[in-house]
């Protein structure tokens, strides 16, 4: 009787051990699934993109599939890189004068889609206008380059556009993809408001040149 009782409890112990091993394998399999999914998604760092850019990309009604892959987009079979004419974290200064106005622009690229900026506008007979904020690249930037014309040389050049909209006012910064023959980048600033109750003037700047 003692021998039978011993065998009975031994069989129960083995049964529990087998169940435990099965549960461990199942848990390990479940834990591994998210890692595989993340790898398939590209594992991009969302801090490298403005939230508004990611939202626009999510809502985009575009005939081809768009995949975000770090420093570039896969649009169908095409690879499209983000603008990188500005070194990450470096501060750039631009200036330009025209029509009795003087513009000073300070910008710094903080990630793949966003610029921090400070704008100063000096006008004859009016107080200086100052604005600072963050401007973002649009999610459909790859559809076509903006094209601006250099005020001095009448040369056309391609540009990337960054924009900001807040409190009924808007601002865009258009930044050349390539330096001019002198090795300097160019920029244009456009700003205004939907009504006349705000301090921001309706302005299109002349060509601003990197200092």
- The overall number of domains is 2
Strand tally:
13
Strand content: 35-45%
Radius of gyration: 28 Å
The rounded distance between the terminal residues' Cα atoms is 98 Å
Listing every helix as H and every strand as E from the N terminus to the C terminus, the arrangement reads HHEEEEEEEEEEEEE
Globally, the shape reads globular
Q: Helix segment count?
A: 2
Main pleated-sheet profile: 8 strands, antiparallel, barrel
Helix content: 10-25%
Condensed summary:
The protein is an alpha+beta fold and 211 residues long. It is 23% helix and 40% strand.
Topology:
Elements: H1 2-40, H2 51-59, E1 66-69, E2 72-75, E3 78-81, E4 91-98, E5 101-109, E6 114-123, E7 129-137, E8 146-149, E9 156-166, E10 169-176, E11 186-193, E12 203-204, E13 208-210
Antiparallel strand pairs: 1-2, 2-3, 4-5, 4-13, 5-6, 6-7, 7-9, 8-9, 9-10, 10-11, 11-12, 11-13
Give keywords:
211 residues, alpha+beta, 2 domains, eight-stranded antiparallel β-barrel, three-stranded antiparallel sheet, 40% strand, disordered N terminus
Report what the structure shows:
- The protein has helices at 2-40, 51-59; strands at 66-69, 72-75, 78-81, 91-98, 101-109, 114-123, 129-137, 146-149, 156-166, 169-176, 186-193, 203-204, 208-210.
- With 211 residues, the chain is α+β, with helices and mostly antiparallel strands.
- It has two domains: 1-40; 91-210, no CATH class.
- The strands form two sheets. It has an eight-stranded antiparallel β-barrel. Strands 1-2-3 form a three-stranded antiparallel sheet, with no helix packed on it.
- It is globular, with a radius of gyration of 28 Å.
């Amino acid at each position: 009787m003692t021998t039978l009782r011993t065998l009975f409890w031994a069989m129960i112990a083995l049964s529990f051990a087998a169940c435990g091993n099965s549960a461990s394998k199942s848990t390990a399999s479940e834990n591994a699934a998210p890692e595989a999914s993340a790898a398939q998604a590209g594992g991009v760092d969302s801090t490298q993109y403005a939230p508004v850019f990611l939202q626009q990309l999510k809502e985009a009604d575009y005939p081809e599939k768009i995949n975000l892959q770090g420093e570039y987009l896969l649009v169908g079979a095409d690879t499209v890189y983000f603008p990188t004419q500005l070194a990450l974290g470096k501060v750039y200064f631009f200036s330009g004068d025209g029509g009795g106005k003087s513009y000073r622009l300070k910008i710094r690229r903080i990630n793949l889609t966003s610029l921090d900026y400070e704008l100063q506008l000096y006008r004859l007979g009016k107080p200086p206008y100052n604005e600072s904020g963050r401007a973002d690249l649009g999610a459909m930037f790859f559809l076509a380059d903006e094209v601006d014309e250099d005020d001095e040389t009448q040369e056309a050049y391609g540009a990337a556009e960054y924009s900001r909209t807040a409190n009924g006012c808007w601002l865009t910064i258009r930044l050349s993809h390539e330096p001019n023959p002198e090795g300097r980048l160019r920029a244009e600033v456009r700003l205004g408001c939907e009504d006349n109750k705000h301090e921001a003037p309706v302005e299109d700047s002349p060509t601003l040149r990197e200092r």
